Amino acid sequence: MEFLNTHSRAIQALSAMLTVVLALAALIGVKMQIDAADRIQRAQSARDIYREFLNLSIGKPEFIAPDYCAMAKSPQAPAYHTYVDYLLYTAEQTLSSDPGWEDTIMATLNDHRTYLCTLEDTEEETGDVQTLLASFRASHCADVKPCAP
Questions:
Q1: At 7, phi and psi to the nearest 5?
Q2: Which among 50, 77, 107, 114 counts the fewest CB atoms within 10 Å?
Q3: Are 118 and 143 in contact (CB under 8 A)?
Q4: 8 Å CB contact between 46 and 101
Q5: pTM confidence score
Q6: Do 61 and 76 form a contact (C-beta atoms < 8 A)?
Q7: Running DSSP on this structure, what letter comes out for residue 27?
Q8: Contacts with 82 (C-beta within 8 Å, 6 or more apart), sequence order
Q9: The pLDDT of residue 11
Q10: Which are the contacts of 125, defined by CB distance < 8 A and separation ≥ 6?
Q11: Angle, in degrees to the nearest 10, between helices 127-140 and 77-97
């Protein structure tokens, strides 16, 4: 008991420091849990968006790998453009969630090379989509010829 009486101030100071350290550890733990939950949610959202894109593709198989030059003159052209816009949105969401989607996305974009390589106005796209399109064009558009008028 004498020891406690003699060193009570040091014990109190040590207790206060230990409380602060534990509180900081708890805050760091909570932050890590929130970040992990956010990553999981973003990954799930990316999978859901990609699944929805696949469902859309099943519903419109003519858009999966079309002859764009023939389609550009058809009444389906606006629907096809919207389909590709959704593909670009899907690409943006999946790649921001997990860069491991890049091979899948690039392969899917390649099916739409003629349209994407001749697409002129991309200013309305987000910066991420513009970057994706620039990267795609740099590696996939060298041999694409524009549609005949």
A1: -110, 25
A2: 107
A3: no
A4: yes
A5: 0.75
A6: no
A7: H
A8: none
A9: 81
A10: 88, 133
A11: 100
